[in-house]
C-alpha cells in the first residue's frame, strides 16, 4: 500500500486541492459505501446528532504544513543569491562559477525527486507523523552544511539534502492532511500546503532583500524546520495509519482528538475500515493493468502535463527571479521586484483554491497555457528590445507585468490541475506506481529547467530562453486541446470508459 500513498500525497501537494474522494477507493465504490453506512459526504454528523469539531483539524493541518513553509524557503533561497550567486560569493568568500551556481540551484530538485518513492514507503512503515518529524534531521544537516560552507561541494551537499526533506514534505504533508480531515474541509486543508509553500518562497525573497546576507538567511531558514518540529510534535497520528497497522484503539483516540469528545467516531471509523478492505480486494498487479488502453492513455496525459508544466519555465522564474530582473535592467531593485512576484504568487494561489474546483479542467488548462505562452513570448520580445532597440528604455519596470501575469495563470491552471487530474485519470489499482513515477518525472523535468537555465541564457540570450519556453507552451496548447479530457463532474468509471474508447 506504500505506493498508493505516494500517489495520493503528491496528487495533493503541488495543487493544494485534495481530491474529495477517499484515496483508497473509487468514487463509485465510495458512493455505495456512503449509502451503506449513512455518512454524509459533506458534513460528518454522529449518531448522537453532534457535528465534528473543525478547529482541531485546522490546527493539525496548519502544523503539518509548516513543513511546506520550510520547503518553500529552500526553493526561494537561490533568488536572493543574486546573478550567478554573486551574493554567495561576497558573503562566503568562496569563488563560484555560473555553472557551479546552476548546480547549487538545481540539486534541490534532484534531492526532492530522490524521495518520491522512499517517503511513501517510510510513511507506511513508521507513520505519517513520525516520518515528517524525522525529515527535520536532513533539513537541519542540510542547512548546517550551507551555513558552514567553505567550499562549493558543501553547498552541493547542503542543497541536495534540504531538497530531500522538501520533496518528502511534498508527499507526506498532503497525505497527512487528507487523512485527518472530514470531506467538508479536506480541500481547504489541502490548499494550505501550496499556500504555505509560496509563503515560504516569499519569506526568502523578503529576508534576502532586507538582510542582504545569505548566511543570516540560511540560519533563519534552518530554524523554521525546528519550529515545525516543536509545533507538530503535539499533533496526533492519522487514524488511517493506525487502522492499517491494526491498532483500532489508537485510531479511535486519534479520531476523538481530531473530531472532539462530543462526536461519536464509530461510524466514521467503520467507513475507514471498509475503505481499506475495499482497497485490498481491488488489488491488481500493475503488469495486468498496464495493458489496458485507459492506463496507457493515462500515462501519456500525466507525463505530458508534467512535462509542459515544467517546460513552461516556471521554476526558472521562481529560482532566478532576482537574476531575471537584473538582466532586464529593471528600474526596480531586483530584490523588491522579486518580492512583488512572490506576493502575487501567494495571492494567486489563495484565489485559485476558491475557483479551481468550480470550473472545468480543460478550460483552465487551455486558458492558463495560452496566457503563459503569450507572457513568455512578450518577455522574449522585451529582452530582445532591451538588447537591440531603445523601445523599452523608459519602461524597464515592464518585465514585472508579464512575470506576474504568468504566475497568476500558472496558479490557476497548469500549477494545480495536472496534480488534480492524476487521481482522476488513473484507476485506483495503478495510482501508486503512476503517481510516484509522475512525481519523479516532474522533479527531473524541474532539474533540467533549473540546471540548464543559466546555460540557455548564455547560449541564446534571455530573449531566446523565454522564446524556447513559449515554444513548449505552443506544443502544450495542442496537447491539451487534442489529448486531455474533461474530468470535472465525472465518476472514475466514466473517465476510464472514455479513455478506453
Task: Assign an overall shape.
Answer: globular
Rg estimate, integer Å:
23 Å
Query: In DSSP terms, counting alpha (H) and pi (I) runs of 4 or more, how many helices?
Result: 24
Helix percentage range: over 70%
Distance between the termini: 30 Å
Write down how many β-strands occur, each being a DSSP E stretch of 2 or more residues. Answer: 0
Instruction: List the secondary-structure elements in sequence, H or E.
Output: HHHHHHHHHHHHHHHHHHHHHHHH
CATH topology, which one? Answer: Growth Hormone, Chain: A
- CATH class wording: Mainly Alpha
Architecture (CATH level 2) name: Up-down Bundle
Q: Could you name the CATH homologous superfamily?
A: MFS general substrate transporter like domains
Average predicted local confidence, pLDDT: 82
Q: Can you lay out the helices and strands and say which pair or pack?
A:
Blueprint: H1 2-12, H2 27-37, H3 55-76, H4 86-92, H5 98-114, H6 116-126, H7 128-134, H8 136-147, H9 152-180, H10 183-211, H11 214-232, H12 239-244, H13 248-259, H14 266-281, H15 286-289, H16 293-311, H17 314-319, H18 321-328, H19 334-355, H20 361-388, H21 400-412, H22 417-425, H23 431-483, H24 492-500
